[in-house]
Each structure stands twice: as structure tokens, then as C-alpha cells.
Amino acid sequence: MTVRLLDFHADWCGPCKTQDPILEEIQEDLGDAFKLQKVNVDEEQDVANQYQVRSLPTLIVENDDGVVDRFVGVTQREDIEAALSEAGA
Question: Start and end of every Thioredoxin domain (predicted)?
């Protein structure tokens, strides 16, 4: 099963810069268990609209069955890891 973590962000978003190191740590620790896909909403508005992203940062955890969890705002590592685990990572 493929597990993806979509990180919707923008260069001008201060909270997004706070979220980045948390995501980098998770990716280092979990490695290939999931795929991190960074989506710059200014460059990929169609993808942001598809997922109905209205606030930044927004994190969406999905697997082959669809969206498992969604977080809006800076999210703590434990919550992200729990969602990734629930999705099958």
C-alpha cells in the first residue's frame, strides 16, 4: 500500500516554515514507509483546489483507499506519525 503525506504550503507562509523541520525529521526516521509530496499552493492551485485546501499549512495523509487524515495549521510530530501509521506506513 502506498502512503503519501501531502504538505500544502507557500513560500510566504510563516507557519509553513515552522512545519518543515518536523516533516524532515519524520521523513528521516521513517524513510521509505511513506512518500512526502510538497505542494506549493501558489504554483499548483489546481491540486490545492482538488483537496479543498483553504488554510496553510495543510497536511493530508492518504493511502490507496483515499484520504485518511487532514491537519490544518502547524501539527505536532506525534499526530502526524499516528496518522501515517493508521494509513499503513
Answer: 1-89
